[in-house]
Amino acid sequence: MLDKTGFDLWADGYDKAVGLSDESCTYPFAGYKQVLGSIYRQVMSQEPCPVLDLGFGTGTLAARLYQQGREVWGLDFSPKMREAAQAKMPDAHLFSGDFTAGLPAPLRERRYGFIVSTYALHHLTDGEKPGFLRELLPLLLPGGKLLIGDVAFASRAQLEECRAQAGDDWDGDEFYFVYEELRAFFPAMTFEPCSHCAGVLALSARN
Question: How far is Cα 38 from Cα 32, in angstroms, rounded to an integer?
Fold first, then answer.
């Protein structure tokens, strides 16, 4: 698993590396553009509201929302990626930190129409994911939605099939989403597949 220094060193080439994997339709970023496009369309289909992006990276998704007038708040592990994203979004409220240690007070104290995260929450173990998601839901405004785009599978069998195909390229330090298992904790969760190894999971606010 990359630490903060590793993410900083990867920052300059991150978008290119992701693009190459997506274009070749290979693990882990096959479907990346479809994932971001789905989340973008869902956010833009609603009236403007604050958006919290957890693990915004270089701001690929957040910057598009920002350019359309959305109020963007965010947290990312890498200070260098935060700097790159801030340059694209001068007035966005971006913070550096580890979301597994809790959100900074300025983020916890606000409410959002959407909380989005792309290719970041797979650093949480399967046991940690349900509790973390439960902590995010109260931060949503009435009618708000949590959208997670990531390496994700409908079933454990599909994950294992992808693992076998990826071989030595499989990252054993990451914990990917399995929809059928998360539904035991969140029966109302939905899943939109975007490739053989990616999709968008959605949860609505408890009204």
Answer: 10
Which neighbouring-strand residues pair with 149? 118, 200
pTM, two decimals, is: 0.89
Tokens of residue 171, six digits? 């990252």
* Cβ-contact 57, 123 below 8 angstroms: no
Task: Find out whether 27 and 151 touch, Cβ atoms under 8 Å.
Answer: yes
Which residue from 200, 149, 198 is spatially nearest to 30, judged by alpha carbons? 198
Q: Give the Cβ contact number of residue 70 at 10 Å.
A: 21
Burial 140-164 (b: 16+ CB within 10 A, else e): beeebbbbbbbbbbeeeebbeebbe
* Segment 98-128, tens digit of pLDDT: 998 889 999 999 999 999 999 999 999 999 9
Rounded to whole angstroms, the Cα distance separating 32 from 149 reads: 8
